[in-house]
Amino acid sequence: GAVVSQHPSRVICKSGTSVKIECRSLDFQATTMFWYRQFPKQSLMLMATSNEGSKATYEQGVEKDKFLINHASLTLSTLTVTSAHPEDSSFYICSAEVPSKTDTQYFGPGTRLTVL
Amino acid sequence: AQKITQTQPGMFVQEKEAVTLDCTYDTSDPSYGLFWYKQPSSGEMIFLIYQGSYDQQNATEGRYSLNFQKARKSANLVISASQLGDSAMYFCAMREGPAGGTSYGKLTFGQGTILTVHP
Fold first, then answer.
1. Contact A26, A82 (CB under 8 A)
2. Beta strands per DSSP E along A1-116
3. pLDDT in tens, B49-104
4. What pLDDT digit, counting tens, does each position of A98-112 carry?
5. Of A49, A107, A112, the CB nearest to B104
6. Whole-number Cα distances in Å, A80 to A26, A100, B55, B98, B105
7. Is A57 on the interface with B (CB under 8 A)?
8. For residue B52, which residues of chain A lie inside 8 Å, CB to CB?
């Protein structure tokens, strides 16, 4: 299957700082990437759809000024959590869509963010 | 209404036995795709199997098979010969609309089922 990497895997930051998370497709080009948030023992919640070369599409209730998404190339999308607060602590996971007859999404390993 | 429903919060199975994880879905779109993912405690989401709405046969991938009953709108995952490494959370997901269509591949996930395999 396709390989997606995510960095960092774990980050701890102070309240008020910004954190950038990178999502890379390693062996394929991804026009579309997705960012999800997951709370413990819960399902994935789609935050936004990231399209290369255009603005991200955010889901209802997700603050686009808080969660900045940039998809600058066909292999890289970044999520920046700006002015992070403890309530932003969560597991963030990205996926990249392999263009095919199934459009299967392959996921990165996730980033555990802890805001102190 | 929930678009994807997984009614089993937890399931237990003996090693080497088969287990079925339930998933029902709701959509009015004639074209859709159904996916199953496995999430071990490490957190990564591992793609297991895909079923398209127009596929005539049930999908199979190694020990995984999908029992697709279109009229009942169910897409149950069957794991044969369970292994200890199968212990994980399993998610059913749906993409509404055809691949490459205007849905941009958005997936809707169920709440997940925690599978525990006993030795």
1. no
2. 4-7, 10-13, 19-25, 32-38, 44-51, 57-58, 67-73, 76-81, 90-97, 105-107, 111-115
3. 999 999 999 999 999 999 999 999 999 999 999 999 999 999 999 998 877 665 56
4. 888 788 999 999 999
5. A49
6. 21, 29, 39, 31, 23
7. yes
8. 101-102
